[in-house]
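Entry type: protein chain
Record version: 2
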Amino acid sequence: METKYVEKRDGGFWVRGTRVSLDSIVYAFRRGASPETIKLRFPVLTLEQVYGAITFYLARQTEIDEYLKHSEEQYDEAKQASHEELRKENPDLYSRLIRAKRESRQTRQ
């Protein structure tokens, strides 16, 4: 299978020659965005590149889904570690942030 549109670099997948991650395209595609809508969100890309990236994903869906799952787990772990560090180093600030977050959620409901 041709990989003309996607390259692996820096531990991730990217639309070849751009700074647009395959992740961004896949998440938009999974949410039901059309290639044309994705193209509008990433004006640096051509419609051909968007279709190429989607084709790349579909041809390797199991591999890419595993990669995305692993990336999400790493993000969650880093986020949790950051919260723990802030909670230990500055408990007052941490409490205020948690309270503000809770109030913000209640306001939106």
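Comment: The chain has a mean pLDDT of 90.
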